[in-house]
Request: fold
Amino acid sequence: MAAPRPRSGLRPPAAAAAAAASRWLPMGPDGSRWVPGPARPVPAPRRLHVSAVSATGSARAAPTSAHRDGGLEPRAAPPAPAPPARGGPGGRGPRGGGSGGCGKMAAAEAARPGTPQRAPLLLLILLLLLFLLLLAGSSQANSVERKIYIPLNRTAPCVRLLNATHQIGCQSSLSGDTGVIHVLEKEQDLQWVLADGPHPPYMVLLDGDLFTRPLLEKLKAASSRVSGLAVALAQPRPAAGFSPGLPCPNDGFGVYSGSYGPQFAHCNGTVWNPLGSGLAYEDFSFPIFLLQDHNETQLIKECYRAHNIGENGSAPVFPLCAMQLSAHMHAVTSTVTCMRRSAAQTTFSINPEVVCDPLTDYNVWSSLQPINGSGRLDPGKRVVIAATRLDSHSFFWNVAPGAEGSAASFVTQLAAAEALSRAPDAPTLPRNVLFVFFQGETFDYIGSSRLVYDMERGKFPVALDNIHSLVELGQVALRNSTLWMHTDPVSQRNDSVRDQVQQILSALRSSGATVPNVSLEEPGRTQPLPPSSLQRFLRARNVSGVVLADHQAAFRNQYYQSIYDTPENIGLQYPPSLTPEEALNHVTETAKSLADVATLLGRTLYRLAGGEKHDDTIQADPLTVTRLLYGFLIQANNSWFRSVMRPDLQGYLGGGPLQHYIAVNSPVNTTYVVQHILANLTGAVLNRTRDQCHGTGTDKDLFEFAWVQGPEGPSGREPLCVRSTVRLSKAVSPAFELQHWASADYSTWTESRWKDIRARIFLVAGRDLEITTLVVGIVILALSLATTYFINAKLLLFQGLGT
Reply:
């Protein structure tokens, strides 16, 4: 996809000169300053001052008032010395010591280097005063900017992502894009933005219900009249659903292709995400921001109603309420282009400027029985893999709640790992069990493709030949008591693979019979696998596997990869009277339902690992599930999560729910938290001090050790030493290790770098006021030059008189 031309900036030269010379100006059509009406349920904003910036210009803080220097009044000149008397009667001649000789001596005395000079002293005083004036002006600049602009602090931008062939996302011009605000509350209001409005370009404030592909395509086609878009969260969420993802997620990077199940390639026959609009995979040449604070949204609407609505249907008059959005992206075109530029910078520049970074993080994995992390598993040993994904995505950067898309699944697998680790014969089962939590699966299977790549090349303790079977959890929270067991029809053409798959299905049915609230069904034998990590294993080897999901065909999740895939989407509710600590331990119906799925998974893994006697003892704890759901979806910084984290990592808990975007700085919050919770649920607490909390001998290769904060006690925290088999492995696409940036086999997603992300509102002046301000600025400049010339002339005169 061709890169969009960078926006040239919206400030005309006259407006820039006006902004440089102007002071903040009176507010409102009648000269008064605007303050929201007291009847509105929003906090009273700071007063807005009109910035002398064009409606089509980029916002810039107006400087403080110009300080005119009146100059220094020259002190009265001392009386000039009398001219030397000529020689004559009564006086000495030229050779004598008369008055003429005294005058020369005085002049010579004044010319000595040590003699004080009045003119340089005056010049020094003048320079000092000018310096003080400049210092005062600079100290007031920030204060004036705060009076002019109101920052929007709780926003999330749409940023630019790139793959081997395309760029997607949004960006602003280098200095940010500015426009007059227009609020769209119904689709008919769009005509004002596209044609009728007299003050383009417009910054559109869009209600979340109108954030649809058809409307954005109209705005995109009229980009000359649209400078940006601010989206308010829909409350309540759109009833018809909303998914900016693709109808066929990860198309082209799964197992189905022209050479493997071509009848299933490109989601032929089964469109998994029918509500997917693909908006998150489009490229926009203007910035788009999400407004996450309802109060800030109301503030913008108050400003719009006060200034941007004309009387009796007429056009509004200046000053008008405007918005500036800044989100300039450094990378363009594709991953191939940006990685080459970054590589060239690194090779030839002393201070290289990287323009994009690969999406990267870590997979989290652990084993039921210890595995030597620095060695290789014996070829004759077999492992059962339980897999799920950690990440999610939405249209906006780092806003990825993923309640149904990922969180419910990895919470279920965490609870299953705890239940299975407590089985009496877990350490002696014939087959080991590997719990894997993949990162980056949303972006063409980054985590699973890297694990398979490492297994093939001996960079992971377990090889592909060691895999006995694989059970994956897809989306499981929206079931109506039924879970669907998805398998691959192509690989089952091999008799041995079909027999092994039937063994997995049999183990699931046997385990399901012991869990009364779960029923299991198979879709048609001719239906392909849904988007899943199992597909990446099948690309390398005929692995026997099953994907458990709450949907038979199309996703039940109407908010897949959306900002609305929140706790509400999976029915997670708490009584309003509960305190945070009470809510943490309140067992919800959703937690009970997922605990049943975790019990099913734990018992199935036990059977696949060769266990027979104690499957009825494997029971997931609903309290564990409810704590996990509360921590990942409501408030991560809670007492239980704090107790399992290392003291230096507590900051990763943040101040609200965790977001599950993979990002480029790793490990991300979710990875760290899952790592420590898995260690807490499956590991052992050792009676060791902090200095002793490490491995010795063979332990250091078999286990990981962590000194965690521990629970709150009467005298403070009680730290613990936890030993577990939990480890991290790289989740970065092999394409970047191989430097195959145009790869069609591996994910090539990168994220552009940027310098500044900012959103703010202000009042913008009209063109007449701009011209007036420009003229006044020129006059002040001329007077300043004349005054400077006059002062310099006076100084030269004083210097001449002094000599």
Remarks:
- Confidence is low (pLDDT under 50) at residues 1-117.
- Residues 767-802 form the longest helix (36 residues).
- The CA atoms of residues 43 and 341 lie 47 Å apart.
